[in-house]
Amino acid sequence: MRNIINLNSKWAFTKMATEIPKEMPKMWDFVNLPHTWNAIDGQDGANDYYRGTCYYAKTIDKLDLPVADRYYLEINGANSSADVYLNGKHLAQHDGGYSTWRVDITDTLERDNLLVIAVDNAPNDRVYPQVADFTFYGGLYRNVNLICVSQSHFDLDYYGTPGLMVTPKSKGSDWDIEIEAFLTNSKIGQELRYTITDKEGNTVAQALTTDTKVTLNISNAHLWHGRKDPYLYTASIQLLEDDKVLDNVSARFGCRTFKIDAENGFILNGEEYALRGVSRHQDRWGIGNALLPEHHEEDMKYIDEIGCTTIRLAHYQHDQYFYDLCDEYGMVIWAEIPYISQHMPTGRENTVSQMKELITQNYNHPSIVCWGLSNEISMKGDEDPDLLENHNILNDLCHEMDKTRPTTIAVVSPCSMDSPYIQIPDLVSYNHYFGWYGGDTSMNGPWFDKFHKKHPNIPIGCSEYGCEALNWHTSNPMQGDYTEEYQAYYHEELIKQLFSRKYMWATHVWNMYDFGADARSEGGENGQNHKGLMTFDRKYKKDSFYAYKAWLSTQPFVHLCGKRYIDRVEDVTKITVYSNLPEVELFANGISLGKKAADDHFFYFDVENKGETQLIAVAGDCKDTSTIRKVDEFNEAYRLKEKGAILNWFDITEKEGYFSLNDKISDIFKTLQGKMLFMGMFAKLMPKKGDKVAGGFEMNDQMMDMMGGFTVLRLSGMIGMMGIELTKEDLLDLNAKLNKIKKPKK
To answer: 685: closest CA among 739, 731, 743?
Structure first.
């Protein structure tokens, strides 16, 4: 029988070594796995986290191990490249930081052993990812095991395989379950016992044979039906010799059919089943990517609370434990490799090996419905022949390895609808941030309508959309202010636009949780991307969390927004309430302000702001409370002050009825004076249609529209990032000129 020994405890670790030690080091630090060396410096900003080679060492006494013919070291995640040494001998090298891989150490194993794993997350030109908006945490950040097996055993060598492949095929209410076993060193006379058990452990089908591929039948099968009924069967195989079990493997699976229709979206078991959900990065505050099972469980608990039906597991292979949770919770999953942001001609082999690992290791999960080829890979243009060829190779590979699932890509927003690149996969999704990175929230839905009209036979989805929010607050939210109120407004608008378009095969919020991005310095807290519906530490659910819960969850609730926004200067303030119940009543200091109904689940009340007011929102049997307080001056603790900014928006003089740096470029361009002003002193800074801009894209109508959505101040910050110097005096002078231009009457 197979024995699996966990090796997570007591590894010696160092960043300082320059060679493989010959004996157990005495001066290294001791750590337990999972472990990353970037848990702190990968989240504090400045993009200066340690990227290089670090060493892990552990002693193994063979007498402590079960007696076996073969011993395999199993590494579930070493980011991003690793080398294995046993007793000074180099045994294996692996590129790719997110998948399982194994090393046969049998022939080098002695009585006393020194195991050393050198892990390297330094930049290179062959292993993905190298350029992306997240931290590439280094380390042995998942489990390390020793698998002890007989000479004849289920395969442990092929791309981290689980040793069996299960393919359910519908025959009406009955299902044929095709099970294929993969063996190493099998012998004549050995047999395989195949067994299928139901959720309760009852045997529903069985076969004893010498064949490595069988088809068993489940009569009147219980379907895996997403969140409604995530029913799982288990397929197990025993390798027998003279009735003795030499080895065993198993995998859970689900009986389900699905198709993705360009007009009607996702269809599960013959029923329309809208895929509305989130994307997930795996890291945490102060922990990095070195997660424990309870962290994965908590992440799933909150995604489940919202009522999500789908998760995009970005931008790499996640822990097997989380895929198991997806199966159990009935989440529909987009799984992908980290072929992201910047195509590397020298990285093709790595995209192929990572895709083989992703599919081989995850084929049996019923939750997974598509394989993601790449994310925003055309940042530097979409016409590179090598990039297109790489995608065709990956697309063909996926279809060769898995006949049951389609392929998809996440396309960067400026990429043309007519690009040959988007014709390669079966499904397409775009990453759009209209209303945050330029443009306006109202542009999102019409853009997808335009795509759907142009390509009526290509299923289209939205793979990323979102905006950042920290603990900043305002009663007048505006694009780019990083307030919780603007994020809530943004998601209200996007929910109404995206969820109402049935043809969209899936929508995924970017992101469920704030995550580490050490190169970022914005929003007042460096080193993070703050687009999450929850904070990095999972301690606070932002108001936008509840906007989705109101649309997706069936568990009755009511939520008062703005709990962190207590001090308010206005005499009458707007209070927003989210609920999935049809009617909400709001009380202020015990007095009812009336009941409101809202088909969109968003309820708005005008509340007199005087002294301190205790608010209670009531919907059915649910209640929620908050407090507001009248103040004479705005509480500066609520206002973002960008570090290093030339000007903050609140430093700008505004005249009622006239423009300022805080107005959108598109609005200013609607006036003749505004156009003339920009064609003068600011024209050289403004890209024109046909110009090549950052990323190698040609400026087109869509990008012009996006740029028009920026305020002048926000655009000036972006111009600064492109190396064009603007002084405070330049901006104040421009603001003074704008203050003389009247806004058109509405």
So the answer is: 731
| CA torsion angle 336 340 346 349 (round to 10) | 0
Q: Which of 280, 279, 285 is nearest to 516 (CA)?
A: 285
Q: Which of 63, 105, 369, 111 minimizes the C-alpha distance to 224?
A: 369
Q: Which of 131-135, 282-286, 682-686 has the lowest mean pLDDT?
A: 682-686
The stretch 564-582 carries a mean pLDDT of 98
Give the Cα separation of 79 and 282 in Å (integer): 13
Structural domain ending residue among the three candidates 118, 149, 180: 149
Say if residue 247 is in the same domain as residue 185. yes
Question: What is the CATH classification number for the domain harbouring 225?
Answer: 2.60.40.10
Neighbours of 186 (CB within 10 A): 19
Q: Tokens 């119940």 belong to which residue?
A: 581
Same domain, 418 and 536: yes
308 & 178 share domain: no
Q: Quick check: is 267 in a domain? A: yes
The most distant pair of C-alpha atoms in the chain lies apart, rounded to whole Å, by: 94
Q: Which of 610, 636, 662 lies at the terminal end of a domain, its last residue?
A: 636
Tens-digit pLDDT profile for residues 359-381: 999 999 999 999 999 999 998 88
Q: Is residue 696 scored above 50 in pLDDT?
A: no
Helices (H), 581-739: 665-668, 672-680, 701-708, 712-721, 728-738
Per the structure, the complete domain to which residue 386 belongs is given by: 258-555
**Cβ-defined contacts of 687-694 (< 8 Å, 24+):** 694/722
Where does the pLDDT of residue 675 fall: very low under 50, low under 70, confident under 90, or very high at 90 and above?
confident
Mean predicted confidence (pLDDT) in 58-64: 97
Percentage of the chain with pLDDT > 70? 94
How many angstroms separate the CA atoms of 23 and 32, rounded?
Answer: 19
Question: Are 245 and 108 in the same domain?
Answer: no
Does pLDDT of 283 surpass 90?
A: yes
Domain total in the chain:
5
Q: Beta strand pairing status for 583-588 and 612-619? A: antiparallel
**Residue 191 annotated as catalytic:** no
Is residue 744 one of the residues assigned to a domain?
no
Cα atoms in the 13 Å half-sphere on the side-chain side of 700: 10
Q: Please check whether residues 81 and 194 belong to one and the same domain.
A: no
Angle formed at CA 680 by CA 677 and CA 683, multiple of 5 degrees: 100
Q: Which of the residues 376, 468, 485, 525 is marked catalytic?
A: 376
Looking only at the bridges linking them, the beta strands covering 591-597 and 213-218 are unpaired
Confidence of residue 721 (pLDDT cuts 50, 70, 90): very low
